[in-house]
Amino acid sequence: GALDPIVRYDLQAQMRELFAQLGKTVVLVTHDVAEAAYLADSLVLMRAGRVVQQGSARDLLEQPADAFVQRFLTAQRSIGDAA
């Protein structure tokens, strides 16, 4: 969120490295799908306090459990959307 893109990019790389070094399960809560896919081996998508789907980012993208999962994963704007 509030970090500039360069700092956020570098911090995500550091976090990914730290998670790998720790060899522990880490729970990270984010609404940023790209960040979740970059940092996690397994994603858990929740709605109204309930698990809607769990799996790898690829699993969720290729086989969304329902319309909510599909919409959540594709509702991310890119710089190309502004043109």
UniProtKB/TrEMBL annotation:
InterPro entries: ABC_osmolyte_uptake_ATP-bind (IPR051921), P-loop_NTPase (IPR027417). The keyword ATP-binding applies. Keywords: ATP-binding, Nucleotide-binding. GO terms for molecular function: ATP binding. Gene3D superfamilies: P-loop containing nucleotide triphosphate hydrolases. PANTHER family: GLYCINE BETAINE/PROLINE BETAINE TRANSPORT SYSTEM ATP-BINDING PROTEIN PROV, GLYCINE BETAINE_PROLINE BETAINE TRANSPORT SYSTEM ATP-BINDING PROTEIN PROV. This is ABC transporter ATP-binding protein.
